[in-house]
Design a protein that fits this description.
The protein is largely without helices or strands and 26 residues long. It comes from Nymphaea colorata (pocket water lily). This is SET domain-containing protein.
């Protein structure tokens, strides 16, 4: 659904399937 996502916060909008260069999690 549109309300579900990757569970991360980004400075810019990320489209579905777009490559994420850096991921920093806790």
């Amino acid at each position: 659904t549109e309300k579900c996502g990757l569970g991360l916060v980004a400075k810019e909008d990320i489209s579905q399937g777009e490559f994420v260069i850096e991921y920093v999690g806790e």
